[in-house]
Input
Amino acid sequence: MELSWSAALSAEEGRELAAQLFEETFGYQPQDVWSAPGRVNVIGEHVDYNGGPCLPIALPHRAFIAYAPREDRLLRLVSPQTREAVDELDLDRIAPRGCEGEVSGWAAYLSGVAWALEKSGYGPLHGFDAALYSCVPRGGGLSSSAALECAMAVAIDEAEGLGLAGSVSEPNDAGRTILVECARMAENQIAGANTGGLDQTASLRCLSGHALALDCRDMSVEHIPFDLESQGLALLVIDTRAAHSLADGQYGQRRADCEEAARQLGVEQLVDVEDLEAATQALSEERLIKRMRHVVSEIARTRALIELLKEGPLEGDRLKVVGALMNDSHDSLRDDYEVSCLELDVAVEAARAAGAYGARMTGGGFGGSAIALVDRERLEETAQAVAQAYSERGLDAPAFIVAVPSAPAGKL
Ligand code: GLA
Output
């Protein structure tokens, strides 16, 4: 069966395509091109907004933004999809979702970052012209929107001399933490998706060759070497291509369930639950028990997996346990958190049956992508098995990516 692999653009290709679109649209050359990656989360799902730990890596797939500041406060935005109709916005009129001046579509992610930087005291900013060219699969649960926000954040940072981002080789981590907050504000308030900080942190603060152990209680990070290739392993990403949107109600409902469970348990966040048994007894509704059980058990699994990675190479029992933790994570997201779907479950089951050490959905769920930890030499075979299972179930063919931990947002 012919497989569809979604290749990443090289830095040169991405720069060139974005700059070309800029020049064709606006009739002059951009100041420069900045970019930011999508991510996969190895484990630690739906725990960021509960103060728990996550373990993302940055993908080689990036959003590229060719950018030039303007003398006025106008924003003109173009992407290959909107070539014919450039979005024009006024920086003085942008307003949160539901208010006059709200911004719809992808322009919300870009303009929202400028808005958030000004709200956070980093203004007044110039208006700008910007052309976007992204190879992060859209709606793939791989943080395509965070990639836009973070590319925008580092572009404005450098062009306006804010001094927050540093460079890709010498990132300013404290400054990037501020940019994460601004990118998240853009997503929460201007785009109207009430997400936690996992995606933006991954895009801005990951390092190439490493996984990022992120503690969402205080947003502190630790970089953990994650070189699967040298260990004969690979992380296969299966983009189900099933519809996926975080701005719809389900994500918000899960958050609300967690907040209600925390309230009933008298803790600030579910990360503070120490005794799962006692918490189960104390909650009133089965639904809240299930949500809480996922969060508390996922936090324990994530901590365990991070410790195993620190212990040494993924081989023997260590590899088996890591795989089992990933499997348990998926099962808990499917059964207790109820954010999986048929396409994700079929991908995960087929990958496991084909010999993956572990497989799970990644990201918000309801479509999007799954990941499978496999022997490097079995990558193709595993992808074939998943594609076969999709075809047998009458599902549209999935797309595949090999996740190699890559560079954070900046100028490549
Ligand atoms: C989405 C959100 C993140 C996080 C994940 C689930 O990707 O943007 O903040 O909550 O879902 O782990």
About this structure: The domain at 4-225 is CATH 3.30.230.10 (Ribosomal Protein S5; domain 2). The chain has eleven helices and 13 strands. The first strand starts at residue 4 and ends at 5. The chain has two domains: 4-225, 229-402.
